[in-house]
UniProtKB/TrEMBL annotation:
Annotated protein name in UniProt: Protein kinase domain-containing protein
ANK repeat placement: 158-190, 191-223
UniProt xrefs under PANTHER family: RIBOSOMAL PROTEIN S6 KINASE
Residues annotated as domain Protein kinase: 285-541
Key words of the record: ANK repeat, ATP-binding, Kinase, Nucleotide-binding, Serine/threonine-protein kinase, Transferase
The species this protein was found in: Stentor coeruleus
Annotated residues for binding of ATP: K314
GO molecular function: ATP binding; protein serine/threonine kinase activity
SUPFAM superfamilies, sorted: Ankyrin repeat, Protein kinase-like (PK-like)
Matching InterPro entries: Ankyrin_rpt, Ankyrin_rpt-contain_sf, Kinase-like_dom_sf, Prot_kinase_dom, Protein_kinase_ATP_BS, STKc_AGC
Name of one Pfam family that matches: Pkinase
Amino acid sequence: MESYLQKVLRYKVPQESPLPACKKSLDEEETKYSLKTESITFNESVINDFHDSLTDSISEGTESNFIQKVPVLSCAPNRHNRSDMTQAFFTAVKQNSYEACKTMLEKFTNGEPLIDINYILADNEAALHIAAREGFLKVCEAIMDYADSPQINIRNENMQTPLHLSCENGHLKIAQLLARSGADLNSIDKNGNTPLHLASRAGHGIIVSWLLSRGPNILIKNNIGKTAEEVSDEIISTLYHKYLKRTITLPGPSISECLKSEAKRVRINDLVEEKSKGQISYEDFIGISQLGKGSFGEVYLVSKQDSGLLYAMKVLRKEKVIAQNLIRYALTERNVLSYIRHPFIVSLNFAFQTSDKLFLVLDYCPGGDLASHLLLEKKFTEQRAKIYLCEILLALEELHRRDIIFRDLKPDNIVLDKEGHALLTDFGLSKEGVYDNSAAKSFCGSVAYLAPEMINRNGHGKAVDWYLLGVLFYEMVIGVPPYFSSNKDELINNIQRGKLKIPASLSVEAKELIKDLLQRDPCRRLGAMKDAQEIKQHVFFKGVNWDMVYRRELKPPIPIIQPVPNTRISSDRLYGDAMSNESTRIKGWTFIADDLII
Ligand SMILES: Nc1ncnc2c1ncn2[C@@H]1O[C@H](COP(=O)(O)OP(=O)(O)OP(=O)(O)O)[C@@H](O)[C@H]1O
């Protein structure tokens, strides 16, 4: 028989949930776009909607004259609409209009993004070049967060990448964002200059120091035979001396070796382009066992044929994803995971597809998910819960910094790596709008993990994640989620207006934190004003060294790792119809992480 706790953890909103119908479903939104097989054709209402959405978005910003400068979009039939959109997008980028950029980047029809993010404008630049050169951080973030497969190392006519331009023009935060997203620190432009050359020559000391801390190849010489240090003035030169003093000097490779390896690297980059066009496939992985099950498919333990390395492979059934109009959410998961590298967020290594399934190959976390640990152990000590809480708080902080709301925080979506550190997994289908889709209710997580504003449909922002962090903390230290009732209606009612019961045995600080995070009014909730910063300063976290947390220096209990079973999952079960079928192909899905291409 199912235990009390199992019930709590597995209590999903059933299809016939009495929650009121949403204002506008995803179905409505997406079917307004009529996509013909080759050319994109819009009807007048789409153009008006698009125009309206721009007006809406700019009304909040400061760019009040933006709309006059956006090219007027003509009506169907018109083969040029996608390029009109792209032109409009370039205008928004030049206007530094984050909202307008985000709005346009979010437009998809049948899995096709409307904006071609890697389009090179007549003056030989992509949008990311412009934003990186001009220092438009939010626009860069919009591109990284919402665009479909932006090429981070895209070249302009001078063979410069966006990182070259941000470094040359002194935009540290953009350079950091690009580096985190996989920008190549050692790429060379037409004149043989690396980003370090350009920052050094322009005298941007802070950028030079930061680049040096990332360990670039400082021996690369440009076309006139100078290293980055040699193009620096005296002040910048002292930064190199400091760096070299701190770095243990090993007998380094000769310069010609460096150049040889640079040439090899450039060839490898070509290979990346080649491979990312689709050379990773189901034939590369062997299924070992099932790790878990989600709403759209299963998660399997797999091994990569050539390296023998283990991964967790998440399988999404296209049929289900397409039927519920969720392609763009699946793409969001793939996109978010493809560029985020964070100690407490599961990394994506590969993505590929067969004709009926989508596959995400993630780092394997062998310690199991927190839901299973809670089932076995009932609850954790405050000290242990605090470690997980600190780590997940940093993961959420990173997502919020990128304007991503996780929304689906629950013990099932937190997995432990072999050292016992907690990582967020499952970015799919928990994005904006999904909860409003009546067809999507069944996968919206356990009812106990719904914030009051989600139930009331008042609209929700980042504060929703802080409420759910409170629910998680409560469950970790008390053993059941707050307001629990085995009756679904009562549970919903309790979340909205029940009295919060906290056992006296908890520390005063823990009780305070729970109350502050479970504040029903999102505006008064801890984190509402200064997001993660505010939570980190709560008395419960007094004495926590957040840099140590980030460096994974806290010591959670080491999980008992089960040996890899000696089993095989048949490829029929894993891959379904492996034949490639262009009609069901989802563009922009295939992915290979940069650090995995050799
Ligand atoms: N990287 C991983 N390593 C080990 N196990 C994992 C990993 N990712 C997921 N799992 C296991 O698979 C289960 C389901 O994963 P996940 O939540 O991503 O699926 P899902 O289809 O998105 O679920 P849902 O949308 O219903 O929440 C997790 O609860 C966990 O047990």
